[in-house]
Amino acid sequence: MPIYKLKSARRILVQCLAISLTMLLAGCATSKYPQVTGDQVTAVQDFDYVIGPGDSLNIFVWGNSELTVTVPVRPDGKITTRLVEDIEASGKTPTQLARDVEKAYSEYVKNAVVTVIVDEFVGIPSQQVRVVGEAAEPLSVPFRKHMTLLDLMIAVGGLTEFADGNKSVLIRNLDGEQQVYNVRLEDLIKEGDISANLALMPGDIMIIPEAWF
Q1: Which strands make up the sheet holding 128-133, listed edge to edge?
Q2: Do 156 and 131 touch, CB atoms closer than 8 A?
């Protein structure tokens, strides 16, 4: 093949590769999911914590220190105290459980007054925020009032070096329907762009993909 034809073919190949790379970068710069906007960023104001398996509970019985005990909520959602076995705890608020313990104790203690204090929090799945993928420490975090995306990323130790933070997605259940949104974790963590921060809701799931190099 003549040299001028070879150079022409190479030039065309380089141009094609440049066009392909431009299209690829343009595709990576955007997401098919919408940003979380409007009322989706409003913090949860009213929130009652519900006990879940793995929680540690302090069962305090007024005037009966010998009955006061700290117990774990078993994987089956039940607790065992010094007087009563297998009390259902999971799915109840601390106040609801306190009333149930008082009722169970009424057979043994006259006018028992019980307070339930949660010492260690795990919560039920619908009140957790889960992080999967390229987080330094992927885990489930108990939701707390006014929790934000930045709080969540601090809890999981930030992103790994392989994370594609700005391609992360937030999966949220709204009125029984699953919604998916794009979030800009890299802008938030590495660039300090506070506009990328947002309020979380109980049950949110954050998926952080790996970058393609």
Answers
A1: 140-142, 128-133, 205-208, 168-174, 177-183
A2: yes
Q: Rounded distance, CA 188 to CA 185, Å? A: 5
C-alpha 75/C-alpha 89 separation (Å) is 11
CATH number at residue 102: 3.30.1950.10
Tokens of residue 147, six digits:
């929790």
List, for residues 187-205, the tens digit of each pLDDT value: 999 999 998 999 999 999 9
CB of 171 closer than 8 Å to CB of 183: no
Amino acid at 19: I
Q: Are 60 and 43 found together in one domain?
A: no
Note whether 193 and 139 are same-domain residues: yes
> With 60 as the cut, is the pLDDT of residue 114 above it?
yes
Residue indicated by tokens 């949110």: 204
Summarize the confidence of residues 139-166 as an average pLDDT.
94
- Number of domains comprising the chain: 3
How far is the C-alpha of 165 from the C-alpha of 191, rounded, in Å?
Answer: 11
Query: Per the domain annotation, does 213 fall within a domain?
Result: no
Which DSSP helix (H) or strand (E) runs through 25? helix 3-28
